[in-house]
Amino acid sequence: MTDPSFSLPADPSRRRGSPAAPAVVIVGGGPGGYESALVAARHGADVHLVDADGIGGAAVLTDVVPSKTLIATAEVLDQVRGSGDLGLRTTRGDDPDTDPSLRADLGAVNARVRALAAAQSADIARSLAEAGVTVHRGHGRLTAPDRVEVHGVEVQGADGPRSLRADVVLLATGARPRELPSAPVDGERVLTWTQLYSLDALPEHLVVVGSGVTGAEFASAYRALGCRVTLVSSRDRVLPGTDREAADVLERAFARRGVVVRSRSRADRVVRDGDTVRVVLTSGEEILASHVLMAVGAVPATEGLGLDEAGVRRTASGHVEVDRVSRTNVGGIYAAGDCTGVLPLASVAAMQGRIAMHHALGDAVAPLLTRQVAQAVFTAPEIASVGVSEAEVEAGEVAGETRLLALATNPRAKMQGIEEGFVRIVVAPGAGTVLGGVVVSPRASELIHPLALAVTHRLTADELAAAFTVYPSVSGSLAEVARRVPQHT
């Protein structure tokens, strides 16, 4: 999961164990932590990684890898159920759209989810061991800008906690689900997204509180698995921070699939009564369910790190304050990932960690540019985006022109029965430089890459259109929408 092309050759004068080898201590074993550890090891540093929750962090063990594994299963079932129009029939001749024999064994699904997460964690742990990184199982705490104290059963010695000296410290402790006092989580009927993988039977009725990325993804997945789903949104639409037309496509897909969206509704409290859970809205209305997923955001895991003692500044939200090369205000201390609040994406955490370590060890680095970050929402259909949005153009924040092409005109989409979705491109007026784009489609997370390359390398729409695409392919619509931009000289 590393990016070798990003690394520079190791300096032979700083071989691990030599007097000149810098001591690097990393707190947190998620993408920001393990990626930075591998970079530091390749540069000959003496690297120590302190981890309390499991190598890979939440991204691998309780968040990204598990959720996308679950979603992959839901996606297959959704495709099979929607294959009646393609001429597929069950052995009884039934339309798969309505065949009651198609069902998900959630116990088996979640067993596979947990096994894959554990296997991915083990793979990363092996990479760290092979690179010579020393892993300490425990909680790390700054006692000085150049000292990290490690607490934990496996590291506690007779003389107390272990103290590690550091020339460079990187904090990558991530975030945890936000919990509300009015909706006590019990891990059985009222759950956070980290606890869903312990369920061994499909909920009869799942109420998802929160319509951001996490809420939308799980609402989409559990409906595809066959669960009755109600999504409670305090906003006027799902995915309030996403492209408006993309969110509209998703809402229509939700309606067609039977997801009930309660817009402009706020959950006041959640009360469990045996096997029933009551979601009480601020309007006084109650929604009865078998299970409730609280998807109301995350809070940075920055308490107990000794930040105040070390003089490391935090924002009002509790995130570690960093610049674009991941430096904190204290020399030698860096931070990466969700604890910084830059963008809550595993890919961003990994890039922050790599940039931080290259910078700390004296390499020339390019700062993180959030405009170049591609991101996706893994619903059905997926929504992927990069760069400048149409909303920014309409608000006059960025000068740009937009072009949109519906996927309904794409021959491969027709073959696959894809009726929803579109591609949009945003270009600079005059020059035609690609500033951003949106893809709404199955596998949009894969299709966004050409647009991300165009944004990163400042390609023009003409250059994007000139590249060959396979016929027929959904990616052909990326070139086609670029051809609809007036040519520039």
From TrEMBL:
Similarity annotation: Belongs to the class-I pyridine nucleotide-disulfide oxidoreductase family.
Coiled coil: none
Pyridine nucleotide-disulphide oxidoreductase dimerisation domain: residues covered: 373-480
Domain FAD/NAD(P)-binding, chain residue ranges per copy: 23-353
Keyword match Flavoprotein: yes
Swiss-Prot/TrEMBL keywords: FAD, Flavoprotein
Name used for this protein in its record: NAD(P)H-quinone dehydrogenase
Domain of life, source organism: Bacteria
Database matches in InterPro entries: FAD/NAD-bd_sf (IPR036188), FAD/NAD-binding_dom (IPR023753), FAD/NAD-linked_Rdtase_dimer_sf (IPR016156), Pyr_nuc-diS_OxRdtase (IPR001100), Pyr_nucl-diS_OxRdtase_dimer (IPR004099)
Pfam families the UniProt entry points to: Pyr_redox_2, Pyr_redox_dim
Statement: the UniProt record of this protein carries the keyword Flavoprotein: yes
Region described as Disordered: spans on this chain: 1-22
